[in-house]
Specification:
By secondary structure, the protein is α/β, with parallel strands linked by helices. The chain is about 45% helix and about 20% strand. It is built from ten helices and nine strands. A seven-stranded mixed sheet has the order 4-5-6-3-7-8-9, sandwiched between helices. A two-stranded antiparallel sheet has the order 1-2. A hairpin with a 2-residue loop joins strand 5 (about 150-160) and strand 6 (about 160-165). Helix 4 (about 55-65) crosses helix 9 (about 230-240). It is globular, with a radius of gyration of 17 Å.
């Protein structure tokens, strides 16, 4: 069992919280783009109202613990570990409820090189608890707009976790996958479920477009988000996202495994 104090210490030592790798410049740039409704940072969310840069900064200060001073424009961003711990507890509670009801779940990540192990541990535990871990539309092609133009990727699953692969990748069923912010993968997965007549997920777990894309369609979604991903926190504030956990999402994969243990213990899903 990993105590709250031990996890807090790990969050700070691994720089998952406290001073993180995301620069203040990158975060502020994301807030400007979000205020302008740039699709690159909306992650599939269509906010109910307009959010200006100052409101976004205030929201991120409240949800993540970043500085609320608009005059601070350089340096590294900071995540309050207490906010991370509180959000992880809420995240675990949503998993507990899903498991208690045997709800179908869909897990997906836009950070497979970093977060696949975290989600795979959750998928294993949820499956053992009797939840159907959904893997729809495997192999389906998805045209995703990137800074390099439109790339056709394929939807794949590793240990029950959805990800996308770029053309030419031959290690189907294995790591790594491609980094993406797009909501198209979750839309394609949900379309595949509808076409097959299979059950829709009672809960979507993930990050980036997986969370915002599902939440925008009215499906309960929870996930992890860095300080330059305001969409998840706006979605949470507007009631589209159930839980957004403030956390650096670019650390070594092994640094997230203690979070898996903590969350599963809190959700009463430890094996």
């Amino acid at each position: 069992m990993l105590s709250t104090g031990a996890l807090r210490a790990h969050l700070l030592a691994a720089r998952l919280a406290g001073p993180v790798a995301t620069s203040r410049e990158d975060s502020l740039r994301s807030y400007r783009l979000f205020a302008a409704r740039d699709p690159r940072v909306m992650l599939g969310l269509d906010p109910e109202r307009a959010w200006d840069e100052r409101e976004l900064l205030g929201l991120m200060a409240d949800r993540c613990g970043v500085s609320s001073d608009p005059g601070q424009v350089t340096g590294t961003d900071v995540i309050d570990p207490e906010r991370t711990l509180s959000a992880l507890d809420a995240f675990a509670e949503r998993l507990r409820v899903a498991a208690a009801h045997g709800a179908p779940v869909l897990l997906g990540t836009g950070h497979p090189d970093r977060l696949l192990g975290f989600y795979a541990g959750l998928a294993d535990a949820l499956s053992a608890a009797g939840c159907l871990v959904l893997t729809p539309a495997q192999g389906r092609c998805i045209d995703i707009t990137t800074r390099f133009g439109v790339r056709t990727c394929n939807l794949d699953y590793v240990r029950g976790v959805a990800l996308v692969r770029e053309p030419g990748v031959r290690c189907a069923g294995r790591e790594p996958g491609a980094h993406t912010h797009s909501p198209l993968p979750v839309r394609v997965a949900l379309e595949g479920l509808a076409e097959s007549g299979g059950p829709l997920p009672g809960l979507v777990v993930g990050d980036h477009g997986w969370v915002c894309g599902a939440g925008q369609l009215g499906i309960e979604a929870i996930g992890l988000a860095a300080t330059d991903d305001p969409a998840l926190f706006v979605g949470e504030a507007e009631g589209r996202v159930s839980v957004a956990v403030p956390l650096d999402d670019t650390a070594r994969p092994s640094y997230y495994l203690p979070l898996t243990r903590y969350v599963l213990n809190r959700a009463c899903l430890s094996q």
